[in-house]
Write a structure and sequence with these properties.
Layout (H helix, E strand, L loop, with lengths): L5 H12 L4 E4 L23 E4 L5 H11 L3 H8 L1 E2 L4 E4 L1 H13 L4 E4 L5 H10 L2 E3 L7 H11 L4 E7 L2 E3 L9 E2 L12 E5 L1 H13 L7 H4 L7 H12 L8 H5 L27 E7 L6 E4 L8 H8 L10 E3 L2 E8 L1 H4 L12 E3 L9 H19 L12 H10 L26 H20 L8
Parallel strand pairs: 1-5, 6-15
Antiparallel strand pairs: 2-4, 3-4, 7-14, 8-12, 8-13, 9-10, 10-11, 11-12
Helix pairs in contact: 1-13, 2-13
């Protein structure tokens, strides 16, 4: 195991409990990262929330599945919980201390406080499978190895993605399907048409909306630098990454910069007016089933509440349900559909598995979940069986489906959301009925998958 973040902790614990000897490499506290401040395993560097506890939420469904598989992270989180309303929130210091102590005391886990580099891979692989769970701050040396192993075009260092919305929440009386100049399939893109006044109001709201702060390690600056300095350093850094400029930064260059750029309406005809709109925001399918759509070229650093307010001003998105908000932040992840097997094993490097955020999932809970999943795959390999792939109806299957969906798109990390789960056919108009169907199907699908797994006893 390389890395004792959420994924590494889950994987190491599961495999040790299954009877395997585990060597867990963690360079902290001897070698710190720009984002961490302690030597604790599974350190919470941002929020102390593990999302909703409600069993009727997608995060609640994923957590229920993880607990049924023996999640150590969630078990300790419950023991270290603090009041957080509907969310599972923890005392971050107590949580980190308890996770660290629990793993260090396990008789089958050997913790090695050293940097693990590419030169260590071959000798490690001769001893057994290797799981890399080094997260968004993977070292330059391991990043270079991953780039060579996967092809540089399949490794990303910045997560620059647009908001994603559920297809069922779109107003199709306003939004129309058309590719520019009718090239490609007719429903390749959906279009949200602006009239001039509406467009100008949107741009004004976009420019004046509150933005999320930039972390020093993302900008490469000092921790105590002024916000303006961090912003300037960050924009300078990301300009070398194609498509990373925040939409609000583009809008600041001139009121019509979006109409001539990201929102150019050329080659489109609004069927309601039979003419070209003043500007148009395009939506692109995010999965094969077309249950999710991303807002094309709308990567942003606006705060999440502001994104919901501003993007709901777009024609046809007034009731949009956001399953993921736009972000531009430091990250390291692979183009999973192209480079990973369904078991998270690298296609080009047998016996090397990825776990956590490296795979293309996002969030504390999802990262931990895919540490558990990688450990399941390794365990099945070690006992001479194959890990059965979970059905898409359960939370694990929905996320694995995202990582294996080879739809032509810019692959981006995703957290768990109901849009990833299959919908009933025909689809009821009542959203509550759709949710009830998905919850029931998830429970049945997970129970069937769990029955097929080789799990530690007790």
């Amino acid at each position: 195991m390389v890395g004792a973040g959420f994924a590494g902790v889950e994987a190491a614990w599961f495999l040790a409990e299954a009877g395997h000897s585990v060597r867990l490499f963690e360079m902290r506290p001897k070698h710190q990262t720009p984002a961490h401040t302690t030597g604790h395993f599974a350190e919470l560097v941002c929020s102390n929330s593990f999302k909703s506890k409600l069993p009727t939420s997608p995060a609640g469904q994923l957590k229920a599945e993880m607990l049924a598989l023996g999640s150590i992270v969630l078990r300790i989180a419950e023991e270290c919980s603090v009041p957080g309303g509907e969310a599972l929130a923890v005392d971050r210091d107590r949580f980190g201390e308890q996770v660290t102590r629990t793993l260090r005391e396990h008789p089958r886990i050997e913790v090695i406080e050293e940097v693990f580099g590419p030169g260590d891979l071959e000798s490690a692989r001769r001893l057994g499978p290797v799981i890399l769970s080094t997260g968004p701050l993977t070292s330059p040396e391991l990043s270079e190895w991953l780039a060579q192993a996967t092809g540089r075009e399949h490794l990303y260092f910045y997560d620059a993605v647009s908001p994603t919305v559920e297809a069922s929440s779109l107003d199709r009386s306003i939004i129309f399907a058309q590719s520019r100049y009718d090239k490609g399939e007719g429903d390749d893109y959906l279009n949200c048409p602006f009239e001039k006044d509406h467009y100008l109001a949107f741009v004004e709201a976009l420019i004046t909306a509150e933005r999320a702060p930039i972390h020093a390690f993302e900008a490469g600056g000092k921790r105590d630098a002024e916000p303006q300095e961090q912003e300037a350093a960050f924009l300078e850094k990301i300009k070398y990454f194609s498509g990373c400029t925040p939409i609000e930064a583009i809008a600041e260059k001139g009121v019509r910069s979006l109409a001539f750029g990201n929102f150019k309406p050329v080659g489109l005809t609004d069927p309601r007016t039979d003419r070209r709109p003043y500007a148009a925001l395009q939506l692109r399918p995010e999965n094969r089933e077309k249950t999710l759509y991303s807002l094309v070229a709308c990567q942003t650093r606006l705060k999440w509440g502001e994104q919901k307010r501003v993007f709901r001003m777009v024609p046809g998105l007034s009731d949009a349900e956001f399953v993921r908000y736009g972000v531009i932040h430091r990250n390291t992840y692979v183009d999973a559909p192209r480079v990973l097997e369904a078991t998270l094993e690298l296609k080009s490097e047998p016996r090397v598995y990825l776990a956590g955020q490296l795979t293309g999932v996002e969030g504390y809970v999802e990262s931990a979940a895919f540490g558990l999943y990688a450990a399941l795959a390794v365990h099945h390999s070690l006992v001479g069986t194959s890990l059965p792939v979970p059905a898409k109806e359960c939370a694990y299957g929905a996320l694995v489906g995202h990582l294996q969906d080879d739809t032509q798109r810019e692959f981006a990390p995703m957290n768990i959301n109901w849009g990833l789960f299959p919908s009933p056919e025909p689809r009821p108009r009542d959203k509550a009925a759709v949710r009830a169907f998905k919850i029931d199907a998830a429970g049945r699908a997970f129970a069937e998958w769990r029955a097929l797994l080789d799990l530690p006893k007790g």
